[in-house]
Amino acid sequence: NVKNSKTLSKKNNGFTILELIIVISVLMIIFSTVYINLNPVTRKKSARDSLRLSNLNEIERVINEYFLDNGKYPGEDNVLYVSTTVNWIPIPNIYKYISKLPVDPGENFYYYKHDISTYEVNVVLENSSELMSKDNGNNINRYEVGNNLLLIAGD
After folding, report:
1. Going by DSSP bridges, is the β-strand pair 119-123/143-146 parallel, antiparallel, or unpaired?
2. What's the predicted TM-score (pTM) here?
3. Which of 71, 89, 104, 145 is the most buried (most CB within 10 A)?
4. Model pLDDT for residues 142-153, shown as the tens digit of each residue
5. Cα 83 from chain centroid?
């Protein structure tokens, strides 16, 4: 009987292959879930999108303040302005409204166009495609703001 208990205790000292496979599988699932949720590339894209949305609000504020002061929108009617340089919308005395217009934090651009009574500003978001498709604009590949989301043609 003593001999049997020693044999049993020797058998229970290690892990079986099946137990190791189960533990490793569970750990892989946990690590992959954590990586997906904390993926640095996705987090950077989300951070740039947050900045883009904040910048759009700032651009809209400047456009609307200019309109209130001057009775018209900045720039020429029906001309598409693209944020390739600083102060890409020609606004006289821009410093009255903002020190400089935002440019995209990544490789995208802001687009602005107006007619006599309406305007649109838009940008491509990297990680928020649901916002682009639900903004009621005519382009599901850009996030659009303004009082006429049909001014800038869709892709």
Report:
1. antiparallel
2. 0.74
3. 89
4. 999 999 999 998
5. 17
Whole-number Å distance between alpha carbons of 14 and 134: 56
Structure-token match 């606004």, residue found: 91
Residues 123, 143 contacting (CB under 8 angstroms): yes
What's phi and psi for 135, nearest 5 deg?
-90, 5
Q: DSSP 3-state assignment of 113?
A: strand
The partner residues of 121 in beta bridges, in order of sequence, read 112, 145
Amino acid making up residue 24: I
Please work out, in degrees rounded to the nearest 5, the angle formed at the alpha carbon of residue 48 by the alpha carbons of 36 and 62: 155
**pLDDT surpassing 70 at residue 108:** yes
99 DSSP assignment: S
Provide the residue type at 69 as one letter: D
